[in-house]
Structures are given as structure tokens and as C-alpha cells.
Amino acid sequence: MLLLATGFIGLLITLYRLWPFRRYLALVAIIATVSFTVLLLITGYTLVFVDIICFLALYQAFNLFRVVKSKIQPEHLRRISQTTAVRLLLAQILIAALGLSAQYAKLLINDPLILGVSCCLLGLIMLISTRRSLTETNKRHVVKKLIDSELPTLTVCIPARNETDSLIACLNSLIANDYPKLEILVLDDHSTNRRTPEIIRSFAHDGVVFIPGNPFNNEWLAKNWAYEQLLEMSNGEIVLFCGADTRFSSDALKIFVSMLINEKRTMLSVMPRNDHTPWKFAWIQPLRYAWEVSLPRRGLDRPPVLPTCWLAQKKFLIESGSFKAVSRRVSPESYFARLALKGNGYSFLQYPALLSQKPHSEQLETVVRLRYPQLRRQPETVALLTLIEALGGLYLLVNIIIGVLERNLLYLSLGFLGFILFATTFGQVFKLTYRSRMIIPYVLWPAILLLDIGLMHVSMWKYEFGTVLWRGRSVSPMVMRHSAFEHLDGVSVHSGSENIH
Questions:
Q1: Lowest CB count within 10 Å: 35, 85, 92, 112, which one?
Q2: Spatial distance between the Cα atoms of 216 and 350, rounded to a whole number of angstroms
Q3: Which of 197, 147, 153, 124 is CA-nearest to residue 421?
């Protein structure tokens, strides 16, 4: 009850009359929340519902801390802090009510059997979703290439900033393509080195068009501003966006466009094969891909999409508001994918002949940059997912230990079954990422889950209190900035947010 009381205090702070005194009141509430939480843990409570309430209380303390330290505009901060406080408090009340009811009815809610079954169900859902994604996206063998006269004009758009040999390899692979009606545009996004514009100009004799970026617009994220300029300069009926770390096979462009046309799609996103990497970095890209293929995204109306390589009809992009509709959105392609999905005009394709060679540091930077916006910039969502990953995945190890110590065959069986389900899921994602089998995910998937939990919190902390970079530029102020709602095609989009309501 004391923790619930501190939750109410956190909510009261967001009221207009108390808001001017928020920092002092928040500090008092933080101290009280943390103290009560530690006290409960020290006293040795072992009931699951009490532990969950304590866990959520820590996020109440985080919400209070951003009231003290956040750089967000005060009125916007008041609203989002109030929303988070209400949701966390309601979750705590619900857990307390369920826990007390179960105790009153003498139900063993902390029985490892219940949690073990829940873990296995979660593992089964993820495995089924992963297998379905792999089956649905593996369509290369059924793609019928169009003849040259049937192919529409295509523009490949590449935003470049401080690139080196990676850009050379990308452009060489594009020039070697057999697409007949191809335009290649490369925008120099105000590189601080001289080599990037020199590389682009050196390919002029091969038809590559150099575009000097316009002065940076502070109302945009840098990448989205580069995309908008490239879209405006493009002449193709189909526009393909990719990074300088992408390598294309000679027939890749024909296959992508043929699939788009044959299946009557307006947008296509392609999952590449990743270059082999040292084992200590091997988990980074699979974590990104697992978020796209291992969750039942289509059931949530949030289709899988990757920024590595995606293409769409230019007319569709313009009618959807172009990149002006998502000027401060970290993942603009996800907005267009969701719109395309509404008319059954979106596909997600895996293509092993498309190679991504992103450096390890940039892979990690990308995960941190995307994770908190993917969770709608909400601490309560981070709390929920952390709870699911910790209880849903890692609790299986507890089941195995209990089964061994108590010689309980049922607990042991549930633990091993869940372990196999999760291990198979992660093994499939790793195989999809590198197109080869690796032993790491089958053995170390609990450590990978812990790493994902850690990255979620690093991303949350950096967006709320620190700095998140993309190519040397800070994106966190723009992403966290509040702005008015825009309405496009019947979809309400909050500029700079990952929310589409």
C-alpha cells in the first residue's frame, strides 16, 4: 500500500497547482518509492505479485526523475509524465487486486507451474511467428522477372555522410546491375570529410548524379531531410532507398521491381544477408531482426520493415505526404509500410544476395537509436516488455533449477521445453541474419535477452537525459520534441514520434 501511495503522489505532482513545485516534490517521492521498494525486498517477500509491484515502482521513480532532470518542454513533460504515472499506478493496482484475490481464494499464483506454462506459450508464439515470417518472406524462387520493356523507371537514392570505401563498393554493385532504366542519386549530407563528395563525383562518368545537400532544416531529422531532397530530385516511377553499406547482386534490382509489379504492391522492404562478424558482436543485428520477424506484427497492424533497402512507387510516397509527414520520425519507412499494408500493398522480402556490411559500432548505434522510439518513448512500455522478457524467457532457467533441486519432472520438462522453443527461435533468426548456422543462440539466448533488456534501458536513458547520435548528429532533441498532430489519409501521425493512432 505504501508503494501505491507513492504512485499517487507522483500523479498529484503533475496537477497544475503542484507542477511549479515538481522538482522538490518529485525528489521526496523518489526517495520514498526507492526506500519502500528496498524495504519490501529486504523483508523477504516471495509472492510474485508483490515483486511485480516493486518492479513497477522503480519505473514510477524513473518517471519522477525525468520530472526533475528532463530537458523536454515543461507542458509536454507534464502531460507525458501524468500519462506514465496513471498507467503504472493502474497496473500496480490491478496486480495488487489480482494477487490479493488469488491469496484470498488460496490460489498458488507464485507456483512455478503457472509461470512455466506461460513461458512455454510465449516461446511457442515467438517460434510460430518466426517460422511464418521466414516462410512468407522467402519468395525469391517464385519471382518472375519482367522483360526490359515491361520494367518501369527506377531511381536509387543514397544519403551519404562521411563515407569512404563503403560507398565505393555500394556504387560499384549498382553500376554492375542489369536494370535498363536506372537513375542513381547520391546526396552528400554535409560531410565533414572531403572524400565523400570526391567519391560521388568520381562516378559521374557512370551516370551517378551528385546532389549537394541543401542547408540543414532544424525542423527535420537529418536522414529524413536527405530522403525528402532525394525524393524531390528523383525521376523514376519507382524509388529505392538504401544505405552506403548495402551491396547488390547483378539481378537484385530487377527482382525487387518485378516482385513489386507482379504482386501489385506499392512498397517492398528487403532483409539482407549480413556479413560475418566476430562472435562478440554477432548478437547485435539478430536482435534487430528478431523485433521484426519474431513478434506477431501483422496481428498488431505493424508490419516488419528495415531501413537497409526499401522501395516504393513514387506516386504513393507523394500521396502519403512524402517525408514531410514524418520529418521527425526515427523510422520513416515504417509509416509508409503501415499505410501500404492497409491496401494490401506491402511486402517484406528476404534476399540473401543483398549484403549489408555495416560496422559493429554503427550496428549498436542503430539499435540504441531505434529501440526507445519503437516502444513509443514510454517508460511504462519498457517496463512491460522487460517484465515479459525477464519472466517469460529467463524464468525458464528457474524452472529447470527448481526441477533439479526438487526432483520434479514436470518443472524440469517445462523448463527444457521452453528452453528449446526460445533457443530454436533465436537460432532461426541468427540463421536468417548470416545465412549460416551458429551455435551461439542455441546456448546463450538467455544472455541475449539480458542484453536486449539492457539496450532498451540504455536507449530510454539516452533519449530522456542524454544524447542519441546518427552520423555524428544528435537526434534525441528532435525525436523527444512535442509538436501538433497531423492528419494524413485518415491516419493521425505525431511528428517525431513512433505513434500512429
A1: 35
A2: 34
A3: 124
Write down how long the chain is: 501
Report the run of H or E that residue 52 belongs to, with start and end: helix 48-69
Helix (H) or strand (E) holding 494: strand 491-494
409 to 177, 189, 416, 435: CA distances (angstroms): 59, 61, 10, 37
Q: Distance (Å, rounded) from C-alpha 479 to C-alpha 476?
A: 5
**Exposure b/e, 415-443, CB count within 10 A at least 16 = b:** bebbbebbbbbbbbbbebbbeeebebbbe
How many Å apart are CA 497 and CA 331, to the nearest integer?
9
Among residues 147, 492, 153, 132, the alpha carbon closest in space to that of 348 is found at 132
Q: Which residue's C-alpha cell is 531482426? A: 289
Answer yes or no: is pLDDT of 313 > 80: yes
Question: Span 137-372: which CATH code?
Answer: 3.90.550.10
In angstroms, rounded to a whole number, what is the distance separating the alpha carbons of residues 215 and 238?
Answer: 26
Farthest CA pair distance, the chain? 80
Structure pTM? 0.87
**Residue spans per domain, the chain:** 1-109, 137-372
Alpha helices in 356-408 (DSSP H): 360-374, 379-389, 395-406
For the chain, how far is it from start to end, CA to CA, in angstroms?
Answer: 34
**Bridging pattern class, strands 346-356 and 246-247:** antiparallel
Best CA proximity match to 350, nearest among 427, 293, 396: 293
pLDDT in tens, 433-479: 888 887 888 888 888 889 999 999 999 999 999 888 887 788 887 78
